[in-house]
């Protein structure tokens, strides 16, 4: 069980909750803060004070005072009117992450919601019932208003949910669970939708997927290095220590360890003096992407524990301040950085695919074909990889450099962070397929070399890979192979960890 308190949620814990179905609980001290914050809101309402988000309109309507008898209706109108997301739905795991993160933010005790609201969010996570949320429509400032409004709809019994493997009307799922719909009170609608939880939830999934992908890329590139009889000297620890980047040194060590007992690996001067950059510079390129991931992780873990709604309530209600913590710029920049980092993993992978299939660049059968000329072999797989990396280049254009005014120019600078997070996810999906193509080609090349000559680690990966994708003995529909292997790679069905030990070159 993981206890949430609004302050120290980690990506490791998020992975356990989202994928491992870890049960969550609410920290009792955090619930005390929630109650104090709620008492402050109720005091403001009863005293007739005018405070943004409690008894005023929103955005450009912030100067409109709402009658006391309409305060509850204000919240319902807010979420209904703002629930106008469009496009494909976020994956269910992203919706689950969104609920966890919204709950964690409310537990900081600055938002003014009732305990029943946070308890309902907790129950949704533990019962695996998640809102159906369209992925398009957020500007990433005033928070993720449209996506989070679809989340808030579920609390009042409207909208749709993912439940027991199906999309169902919320009321249908509530009946099965014995839930009553909530009636949102003053401040609660705004507290639920004013935040960065859509981009951050998508960012969490992106980070988890990207972290696994860079580990896999070290393994698959090591397989390619062996199948092309690459030169291990370029991975000598002294070279990487001389530059000083820890991540670069780590990648070089991983490759040395994976290939340590290979009979295919060569030394400089044996077959050639130098390898092409796509082989020789694996530590430098993969290492740089790992540096980017470290930056992204730092920003995500701050944002996962941040109060991002507006206004925020401090000092037991004595201080209620309107600010801009809902602005997604920190995550927008992090997602744009992640896009570039993962796109480069795919770029260099595609170049290694070219070296595997191009008979002018190796001594293997052309395009790894079982019968060159009559059969095309892996020829068009390289086309697909090239297409995917080119698509990634367009997706990698930074979303955060764009802005457009909204709400009658009251909200005149926005982050586009959710767009950046969505595009990062697509880049990761594309990159996974490119790495899958590289692995298919590397396995085929290893068969020509003699799999018994490969390192014991690569033989283990090869054996697992061949359970998923058979040898190319005749041309077939390779689309299925690419998709199947990509799905296998995305399911953590291999131990990608490396037993740390430095191997002298």
From TrEMBL:
It comes from Halobacillus amylolyticus. The keyword Lyase applies. It catalyses: L-histidine = trans-urocanate + NH4(+). Keywords: Cytoplasm, Histidine metabolism, Lyase. Pfam families: Lyase_aromatic. Its EC number is 4.3.1.3. There is a cross-link at residues 141-143 (5-imidazolinone (Ala-Gly)). SUPFAM superfamilies: L-aspartase-like (SSF48557). Belongs to the PAL/histidase family. Contains an active site 4-methylidene-imidazol-5-one (MIO), which is formed autocatalytically by cyclization and dehydration of residues Ala-Ser-Gly. GO terms for molecular function: histidine ammonia-lyase activity. PANTHER family: HISTIDINE AMMONIA-LYASE (PTHR10362). InterPro entries: Aromatic_Lyase, Fumarase/histidase_N, HutH, L-Aspartase-like, Phe/His_NH3-lyase_AS. It is found in: Cytoplasm. The modification 2,3-didehydroalanine (Ser) is found at residue 142. This is Histidine ammonia-lyase. Pathway: Amino-acid degradation; L-histidine degradation into L-glutamate; N-formimidoyl-L-glutamate from L-histidine: step 1/3. Gene3D superfamilies: Fumarase/aspartase (Central domain), Fumarase/aspartase (N-terminal domain). It comes from the Bacteria.
């Amino acid at each position: 069980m993981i206890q949430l308190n609004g302050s120290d949620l980690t990506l490791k814990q998020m992975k356990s909750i989202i994928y491992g179905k870890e049960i969550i609980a609410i920290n009792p001290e955090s619930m005390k803060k929630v109650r104090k914050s709620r008492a402050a809101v109720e005091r403001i309402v009863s005293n007739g004070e005018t405070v943004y988000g409690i008894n005023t309109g929103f955005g450009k309507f912030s100067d409109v005072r709402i009658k006391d008898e309409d305060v509850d209706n204000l919240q319902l109108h807010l979420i209904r009117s703002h629930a106008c997301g469009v496009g494909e739905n976020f994956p269910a795991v992203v919706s689950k992450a969104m609920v966890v993160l919204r709950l964690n933010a409310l537990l900081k005790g600055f938002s003014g919601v009732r305990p029943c609201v946070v308890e309902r969010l907790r129950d949704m996570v533990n019962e695996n019932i998640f809102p159906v949320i369209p992925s398009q429509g957020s500007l990433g400032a005033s928070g993720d208003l449209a996506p989070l409004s679809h989340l808030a709809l579920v609390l009042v019994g409207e909208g749709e949910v993912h439940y027991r493997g199906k999309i169902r009307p919320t009321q249908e799922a509530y009946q099965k669970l014995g839930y009553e719909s909530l009636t949102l009170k003053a401040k609660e609608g705004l507290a639920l939708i004013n935040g960065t939880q859509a981009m951050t939830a998508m960012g969490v999934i992106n980070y988890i997927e990207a972290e696994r992908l860079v580990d896999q890329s070290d393994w698959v590139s090591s397989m390619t290095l062996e199948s092309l009889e690459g030169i291990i000297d370029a991975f000598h620890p002294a070279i990487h220590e001389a530059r000083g980047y820890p991540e670069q040194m780590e990648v070089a060590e991983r490759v040395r360890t994976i290939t340590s007992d290979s009979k295919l690996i060569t030394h400089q001067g044996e077959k050639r003096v130098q390898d092409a950059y796509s082989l020789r510079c694996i530590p430098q390129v993969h290492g740089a992407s790992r540096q980017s991931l470290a930056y992204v992780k730092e920003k995500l873990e701050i944002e996962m524990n941040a109060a991002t709604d507006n206004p925020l309530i401090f000092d037991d209600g004595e201080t209620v301040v309107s600010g801009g913590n809902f602005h997604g710029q920190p995550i927008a920049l992090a997602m744009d950085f992640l896009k570039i980092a993962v796109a480069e993993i795919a770029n260099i992978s595609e170049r290694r695919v070219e070296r595997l299939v191009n008979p002018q660049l190796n001594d293997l059968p052309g395009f790894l074909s079982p019968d060159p000329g009559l059969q095309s072999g892996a020829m068009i797989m390289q086309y697909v990889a090239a297409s995917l990396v080119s698509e990634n280049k367009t997706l990698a254009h930074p979303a955060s450099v764009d802005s457009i005014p909204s709400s009658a120019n009251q909200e005149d600078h926005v982050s586009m962070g959710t767009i950046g997070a969505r595009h990062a996810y697509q880049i990761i999906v594309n990159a996974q397929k490119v790495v899958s193509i590289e692995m298919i080609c590397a396995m085929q090349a290893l068969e020509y070399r003699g799999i018994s000559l490969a390192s014991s680690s690569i033989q283990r990966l090869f054996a697992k890979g061949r359970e998923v994708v058979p040898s190319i003995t005749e041309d077939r529909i390779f689309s299925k192979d690419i998709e199947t292997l990509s799905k296998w790679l995305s399911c953590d069905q291999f131990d990608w960890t490396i037993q740390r030990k430095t191997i002298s070159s």
